[in-house]
Specification:
globular, mainly alpha, 2 domains, 218 residues, two-stranded antiparallel sheet, Alpha-Beta Plaits
Length: 218
C-alpha cells in the first residue's frame, strides 16, 4: 500500500508528546515518527514520553519495550520556563526559539512565558544572551513530581502539535530547516540559537540602550 509508511508515521506521531524538544536527535516529533516508521530510529529516544511512551510505541509496532536511550537524556518531571523580569532585555530570541509560541512579548520589552502552553522543551535557554530564563518545577504540586505521560495529557499533546504547526507557518525558514534535516537524516541543531558573535552584538546593543535610558552613555 503506497500510503502505508505515511499512515504509520502519523500513528507513531500521535503517540509522541509533541514537546518538540529535539532530544531524540530529530528536528521535531513528526521527523522522529517518520524515522521510526522507516526503520531509521529506535522507539526509545523520547525522554518526555518516558517509559510509558516507549510502551505505547512498542504496542503499536509489536516490538518489545526497551530502556530509554541514555544518550537522549533521562525521564524526569516536566519543567516550566520562567523569565526573570529584572534581567530580560527584550531581544525576542526566546520567542523565535519557542516551538509552540509559549512566550509572549515584543522587541525591547520584557517577555513572559504562558505557563499552560510551555512544554518544558528548554529550547529557549541557549538563545538568551543574558541567561535570564530558568527551568522550574510545575507550580501544581500534584504534577511537579510526575514524569512522562503522567505529567502530560493527550489533549495537551494535541494542542502543542497545533501550536507548533502554526509556529512553522509563521517561520517558514525553520520549516525548511526541519524538512532538510529530515531528508538528510542528520541530527539537526537543537535550536535556532544565534551565533556567538550575534549574541555578543545583541547583548552589547541592549547594554547601550540601557545606558542611554539611564543617561550614562559614554
Amino acid at each position: 500500500m503506497p500510503n502505508a509508511p505515511g499512515a504509520l508515521a502519523a500513528q507513531i506521531d500521535a503517540l509522541l508528546p509533541q514537546t518538540q524538544c529535539t532530544r531524540c536527535g530529530y528536528p521535531d516529533c513528526a521527523a522522529y515518527a517518520q524515522a521510526i516508521a522507516s526503520g531509521d530510529a529506535e522507539i526509545n529516544r523520547c525522554p518526555p514520553g518516558g517509559a510509558e511512551g516507549i510502551a505505547r510505541l512498542a504496542a503499536l509496532l509489536h516490538r518489545p519495550p526497551a530502556p530509554l536511550d541514555p544518550e537522549c537524556g533521562a525521564e524526569g518531571p516536566r519543567l516550566l520556563a520562567v523569565i526573570d523580569p529584572a534581567q530580560c532585555i527584550g531581544c525576542t530570541l526566546c520567542i523565535q526559539a519557542c516551538p509552540v509560541d509559549a512566550i509572549a512579548g515584543v522587541s525591547k520589552r520584557m517577555h513572559t512565558v504562558i505557563a499552560r502552553w510551555c512544554t518544558g522543551c528548554a529550547l529557549c535557554l541557549p538563545p538568551c544572551p543574558v541567561d535570564c530564563i530558568r527551568m522550574e518545577p510545575l507550580p501544581d504540586a500534584a504534577l511537579a513530581t510526575q514524569t512522562g505521560w503522567n505529567a502530560w495529557t493527550a489533549a495537551q499533546s494535541t494542542e502543542a502539535r497545533q501550536r507548533y504547526s502554526r509556529h512553522l507557518e509563521r517561520h517558514p525558514r525553520q520549516l525548511a530547516q526541519a524538512a532538510a534535516a529530515e531528508q538528510a537524516q542528520t541530527e539537526p541543531p537543537a535550536t535556532s540559537a544565534p551565533s556567538a558573535d550575534r549574541k555578543a552584538a545583541l547583548l552589547q546593543a541592549a547594554l547601550e540602550r540601557a545606558r542611554r535610558r539611564q543617561g550614562t552613555t559614554t
